[in-house]
Amino acid sequence: MSDRPLLLRALRGETTERPPAWLYRQAGRYLPEYRELRARGTFAALCATPELACEATLQPIRRFKLDAAIVFSDLLVPLEGFGWTLHHGDHGPEVVDGPRSAAEAAAHARYEARDTTEAPARTLALLQRALPAEVARIGFAGAPLTLALYLLEGRGSKGFEKGRALLWQDEAKAQALFEALAIGVAEYAAAQVAGGAQAIQLFDSWGALLAVADWRRLVLPAARELVARIRREGVPVCWFLRGGADHAALALETGADAVAVDWSVDLPAFARGPAAGRAVQGNLDPALLLAPPDVAARHVRALRRAMGDRHGWIFNLGHGITPAARIETVAALLEAVREPSDAAAPPVTAR
Ligand code: CP3
Fold first, then answer.
1. Is the N end or the C end of the chain the one with fewer CB atoms within 10 Å?
2. Ligand 1 nearest-atom number relative to CA 242
3. 233 near 242, Cβ under 8 Å?
4. Rounded to an integer, what distance in angstroms lies between the CA atom of residue 94 and that of residue 108?
5. Global confidence as pTM
6. Residue 197: domain span
7. Within-domain flag for 301
8. Residues near ligand 1 with C-beta < 6 Å?
9. What is the residue with the minimal CA distance to atom 26 of ligand 1?
10. Is 74 noted as a catalytic residue in this protein?
11. Closest Cα to atom 40, ligand 1: which residue?
């Protein structure tokens, strides 16, 4: 069907006339209309109020040519479904009175849908009515290790040293925590699918803080379980693992339909090599959005040339948009993804 979203076709590895495009944190503070909406209430209230979350989700869609809308919420919101309390301070969300050990965390990691964590599902239902059929609706959640690190650390951090120390204090309980989080996150994602999500994006933003062998041993079983449970709901899953090609290759082992990589990875080589036959997503440096529009457009064209006619490629950044992103550069970047492919085709070579 012609109005089947391009994103869903690419996630299934099908041929598309151009890569579909969306951007991590496409709704957010770089948009004046978001800052205006945000001035009227807290970030937590935005996430918890479906009408407002729907409005925030739609803002970038109205402005730019995007192929998908990602439900407005936050990575840490489902922690409330596990019974922990969040506080939204100046440096992002924090866990109030969080667990003091992996054992304590694992013992309490039973997910129950509570009001706040149901908000994304209700927001998706509103989005289904508001969006044209060709714009895909993406739900999202945190991957088990990334969520566990936030939970044990209590807040965002450069290296999550405290969180990692608590994982190492009791490996068996750490594993039990990953399993419990996976089961809860799968339920949280299933609610989003019931609300109208057509694909689920998992963020393992801090997945590379464990060595490859440790990740495989301690996290992979829970990761595979999580992916299998979401896929059983009938939607494709994309796993973002930030931190280089070796870790990105781990994400392939989860069984996810697509693997998303940051800009440190040579995407064309990764797509031809370890990820052959699998959909990939990425991966321009988000700092390009602070550059003049033509610079960002040039990088898009170069990546398109290098990717050639690779099926199953979803264009995105390598990590989230930052508040200093220039709107005209975001627009130019997305225009360049839509240019006819001969503009981006490889130069003709003599044979
Ligand atoms: O447009 C979208 O992508 C949808 C909404 C979305 C947000 N956060 C909104 C947000 C999504 C998908 C996220 C994911 C998220 N949140 C991640 C995973 C992706 C990544 O960036 O690695 C993580 C680690 C978080 C946790 C988080 N949320 C932090 C550390 C912070 C504070 C830092 C910051 O950027 O302010 C947030 C806050 C946050 N999440 C904002 C938005 C729009 C800013 C809140 C505000 O308006 O004050």
1. C
2. 22
3. no
4. 18
5. 0.96
6. 6-283+308-318
7. no
8. 24-29, 38, 43, 70, 72-76, 92-93, 140, 156, 203, 205, 320
9. 75
10. yes
11. 74
